[in-house]
Each structure stands twice: as structure tokens, then as C-alpha cells.
Design a protein that fits this description.
By secondary structure, this protein is α+β, with helices and mostly antiparallel strands. The chain has a single domain, classed as Alpha-Beta Complex (Nucleoside Triphosphate Pyrophosphohydrolase). The chain contains three helices and eight strands; from the N terminus they run E-E-E-E-H-E-E-E-E-H-H. Strands 1, 4, 5, 6 and 7 form a five-stranded mixed sheet that branches. The chain has a three-stranded antiparallel sheet with strand order 3-2-8, with no helix packed on it. Strand 6 and strand 7 form a beta hairpin. The protein is globular and about 45 Å long.
Length: 157
């Protein structure tokens, strides 16, 4: 692996609604369907960036799911990512801190005018997605939410 290029830190948010659908955006530069996300600003914590990017791109506010075995709340500190993905990106090294959540409410179209779509978990297999994106959505459907059991239970799976 090349040692040239910058390390770019980004946050990605895999979001679901109460009807068992995954939230996807049409990435403006790459033209692919993927979860909302983007670069972490210098003043932000990673989970704040994930929530901000989701809101800017989709207009949805999201309730993050906690990491396994970790209580929820400010006294426990910022939530850690549920996964970390890394790989090359245009001559740089992209490190994505990955979060998951349930959409709380919609506040209108996102600021960035990006196309969004809701896809059932079954339909994820039928649309063109990066393989790691499809696998993450399937992986996260069984996460506990800290109070109501697994995300699958919340979503009726």
C-alpha cells in the first residue's frame, strides 16, 4: 500500500425507519447508492459528523444505536463507532467511522439536494450497491438499541 496521500476521516450512518427500510443516498460524485456520510470537521466528534451529514444529505434526524455492552448517555462519553472501514480513495486513504441508527423525524429536504431512497432489507439484494454496504445493513439489523431489544425487534424482523 502506498504511503503517499492524506488520511481522510469520515463518518457514515446506516439508518433505518420503523417500516424496516434502509436509508440510502445517491452519492453525487460517484453516482452509487450508499448510506449518508462525509468528512469529519476539525471541531466535531465522529458521531456528531455522522448525524450532521445524515441531516444535511437527507433531512432526517436519527437516534444512534449504542455499541454492544455500552450504556447510553452523556456520562459515558461519546458513542464509539460500531465499525471502522478503511480503503483507498482518489490517491488518499479513507477511514470511515461507522454508526447505525433509527430515523427519528424528517425536517424537510436535506440542504445538499441529494437524491434519497428507502429500500426494504429484501430489496437490498436486488439493487446495485457496494458489497460492504449491503453487508453492513444486514449486519446492523440485529443490533440492540439499549432498551427495546435488537434493531430487528424494533423493526419487526
Amino acid at each position: 500500500m502506498s504511503r503517499t496521500g492524506q488520511i481522510i476521516l469520515a463518518a457514515t450512518l446506516y439508518a433505518f425507519d420503523e417500516d424496516r427500510h434502509a436509508l440510502l443516498i445517491r452519492h453525487p460524485r460517484m453516482g452509487i447508492w450508499c448510506p449518508p456520510g462525509g468528512k469529519i470537521a476539525p471541531h466535531e466528534l465522529p458521531h456528531e459528523a455522522a448525524l450532521r451529514e445524515c441531516w444535511e444529505e437527507t433531512g432526517y434526524r436519527v437516534q444512534l444505536l449504542p455499541a454492544l455492552g455500552r450504556p447510553v448517555g452523556e456520562r459515558w462519553g461519546p458513542p464509539p463507532p460500531l465499525a471502522v472501514d478503511a480503503g483507498p480513495a482518489n490517491g488518499n486513504h479513507l477511514v470511515q467511522l461507522v454508526y447505525c441508527g433509527v430515523c427519528d423525524h424528517w425536517e424537510g429536504p436535506g440542504e445538499e439536494g441529494i437524491a434519497i431512497r428507502w429500500v426494504s432489507l429484501a430489496d437490498l439484494a436486488r439493487i446495485s450497491l457496494p458489497i460492504n454496504v449491503r453487508e453492513r445493513y444486514w449486519q446492523f439489523r440485529d443490533l440492540p438499541d439499549g432498551s427495546r431489544g435488537s434493531l430487528a425487534a424494533i423493526l419487526g424482523d
